[in-house]
Design a protein that fits this description.
12 helices; BamD-like; 269 residues; single chain; disordered N terminus; signal; BamD; elongated; mainly alpha
């Protein structure tokens, strides 16, 4: 029985391959289109691409051009050829701006760029492009079919950029006094706080800004310490006001105690 099943599967596979090869070699465009539809229905998008490459030029300029173009872009996307799907969806928008699928194409072009966004530790050029494309869709279709999904992706990408910027600043802090680490950290955390106002890392950034300024100040030449610790106290006051229940509260209070201890010891002299 098992052998019979294997034989049946093998015969079906060979028949399928035979039909595919026949369609590839055929001069009958309808046969190619039918095979494309069959392959896409089975999720075999990659296999359909060779047929699309044959058929797209034939249908260009015809009434069927738009339908073929949007299917081609979908096949590329599902095959994870995102740079090519982005191009084809964008080309669709340019060629068929009033087509009912124009909204879908604009969204899927943006989503293709979203798929190319790398992990936060790598260059974020693709992430910024994706954000621009998604925002374009949201602006054009504020109540569109895919606006909710686009907003979720925008939030995710912004979080990625937040994490990238925060981790760069944190790396400077990690360097300490080596190569001016604290000075760079202070600048980086200040910029982060200004440039990423809604970030989940605001709490963390504000604390490490305080700690960086304190470490920078306390390790300075004696005549520079008071002024730099005064700046650290300013950062502490901001932190304590904004984040009274922060997980860093005890650490921040400890830094403030050290500042007060320094001021007490040096004021009495």
């Amino acid at each position: 029985m098992k052998n019979l099943i294997v034989v049946i599967i093998l015969v079906a596979t060979l028949a399928s391959c035979g039909s595919y090869q026949k369609a590839l070699k055929s001069e009958d465009n309808l046969e190619k289109v039918a095979m494309i539809d069959t392959l896409m229905a089975k999720g075999k998008y990659g296999k359909s691409l060779a047929l699309f490459e044959q058929i797209i030029p034939v249908y260009r300029g015809t009434d069927s051009a738009a339908d073929m173009a949007i299917k081609y872009a979908k096949a590329l996307y599902e095959d994870e050829s995102y740079i090519n799907s982005a191009y084809q969806y964008e080309r669709f928008i340019t060629s068929h701006p009033t087509n009912p699928n124009a909204q879908l194409a604009l969204f899927m072009a943006a989503k293709s760029h979203y798929q190319m966004s790398p992990v936060y530790s790598k260059d974020q050029t693709d992430t910024n492009i994706a954000l621009t494309k998604l925002q374009e869709y949201i602006n054009v279709y504020p109540s569109g079919d895919y606006t909710d999904e686009a907003n979720v992706m925008v939030e995710e990408l912004r979080d990625k950029l937040d994490k990238k910027a925060y981790e760069i600043a944190k790396q400077y802090h990690h360097f300490g006094n080596f190569r001016g680490g604290y000075i760079s950290a202070i600048s980086a955390f200040e910029n982060f706080i200004l440039d990423h106002p809604g970030s989940d890392y605001q709490d963390d950034a504000q604390f490490y800004l305080l700690d960086s300024q304190f470490q920078y100040g306390i390790n300075s030449f004696a005549e520079l310490v008071p002024e730099r610790l005064a700046k650290a106290k300013e950062y502490y006051d901001i932190f304590a006001k904004r984040y009274p229940n922060s997980e860093y509260k005890e650490d921040a209070d400890e830094i403030m105690e050290k500042i007060e201890e320094y001021n007490s010891q040096n004021t009495s002299k």
